[in-house]
Amino acid sequence: MKTLSLILGAGLLFSTFTNAETNLPDRQTELPAHAKAASSEYLVPRDLTTIPDTEFGNKVKQGYSLFVNSQTMRGQYVGNEQNCANCHMQAGMKANSAPLWGAFMAYPAYRKKNDKVNTYAERIQGCFKYSMNGVAPAVDSPELVALTAYSYWLAMGGLLDKYDMQSTPIPEMSDAVVQLGGKADSFVLPEKIAAALPVEQRNKLAGRGYPKLAKPAQAPSIPRGEIVYQQTCATCHGDNGQGLKQDGVQSFPPLWGKGSFNWGAGMHRVNTAAYFIYENMPLGKSIQLSNQQAWDVAAFMNSHERPQDPRFNGDLKANKEQYHNHQGYYGKTVNGKIVGENAFPAKAVD
Predict the structure, then answer these.
(1) Are strands 337-338 and 333-334 parallel, antiparallel or unpaired?
(2) Which residues, at least 6 apart from 337, have a Cβ–Cβ distance to it below 8 Å?
(3) Secondary structure, 3-state, the chain
(4) pLDDT tens, position by position, for the chain (350 residues)?
(5) pTM listed for this prediction
(6) Which one of 9, 235, 254, 316 has the fewest beta carbons within 10 angstroms of its own beta carbon?
(7) What is the C-alpha separation between 23 and 20, in angstroms, rounded?
């Protein structure tokens, strides 16, 4: 009965958050970043082969599949050439690459971007709107249920193992509980973990997000960044940032252009891109560039056109003033052109 009460309570809370969807002011603010922690502190999710052959396990498997091959949702929810795993390395498991286990344990949480408390499912919906330049699946859609189940499975398996509970199976939760996120008061953790990780600490797991990078000695330079790009990035992402396709499959994502993330995505910010690039690029190597090179190449990448900010209502100046008071080029003049004036269509789905 206690479990049923918790699930019903979570469902009511989730419903409350969902019904709170209104036309609240939307702000583009800096994404949370943090200092890099020692690698010994990171969660390590369980091996994928341990996902059970149960109804819940099948949702987890589907979530993994959608995460690494998001193009299966192309035209319905995804409007560009991106996969979720492009911004979240190693299928969302890698520390310091915005791992799903870190994000899951950080929600529900207030976001300045839409000025309200977001459930974990709502946070993922934001990724579809901006990073994937598409349309968010409904909260109760199989796709969103699967992606939240996969995130939960990564987080809970990592926590159980970290606290010496390797033989404990990952509890199979209801969709409503999982979609709220691990920072909900109603989210039940084993007593040992709950004692070590109170609710207010769950959003501070080591390795979450992208580590904050010190400011460069010189202001980020687009010309210097172009040199870095051609020397270290163009092999995989193309001379014009178009990415690389092999046999019709996008092997490396576009970094700008119509197939890229849009002007509302967090990665269009120079600082966010610099944090990601420094820590995670080139793919499979990481931390190969200097601090200055990471900032410069992030500036070069984000000085190019991409799909329009979905919040754009026809007035570029007004959109810039409302949502783009940060490190970015949207609405600014680069090489004689105002960035954003020739953006590609937003929400590029059928």
Answers:
(1) antiparallel
(2) none
(3) CHHHHHHHHHHHHHHHHHHCCCCCCCCCCCCCCECCCCHHHCCCCCCHHHCCCCHHHHHHHHHHHHHHCHHHHECCCECCCCCHHHCCHHHHCCCCCCCHHHHHCCCCEEECCCCEEECHHHHHHHHHHCCCCCCCCCCCCHHHHHHHHHHHHHHHHHHHHHCCCCCCCCCCCCHHHHHHCCCCCCCCCCHHHHHHCCHHHHHHCCCCCCECCCCCCCCCCHHHHHHHHHHHCHHHHCCCCCCEEECCEEEECCCCCCCCCCCCCHHHCHHHHHHHHHHHCCCCCCCCCCHHHHHHHHHHHCCCCCECCCCCCCCHHHHHHHHCCCCCCCCCEECCEECCCCCECCCCCC
(4) 333 333 333 333 333 333 334 444 445 455 566 777 777 789 999 999 999 999 999 999 999 999 999 999 999 999 999 999 999 999 999 999 999 999 999 999 998 888 889 999 999 999 999 999 999 999 999 999 999 999 999 999 999 999 999 999 999 999 999 999 999 999 999 999 999 999 999 999 999 999 999 999 999 999 999 999 999 999 999 999 999 988 888 889 999 999 999 999 999 999 999 999 999 998 878 889 999 999 999 999 999 999 999 999 999 999 999 999 889 999 999 999 999 999 999 988 87
(5) 0.88
(6) 235
(7) 9
Amino acid at 307: P
Q: Could you give the angle at which helices 55-68 and 142-162 cross, rounded to 10 degrees? A: 100
Task: Answer for the pair 235, 297: CB distance below 8 angstroms, yes or no.
Answer: no
Helix axes 120-129, 142-162, angle to 10 degrees: 120
Please answer whether residues 24 and 115 qualify as being in contact, where contact means their C-beta atoms are separated by less than 8 angstroms.
Answer: yes
Q: Name the token pair of 257.
A: 């252009």
First to last CA, the chain: 45
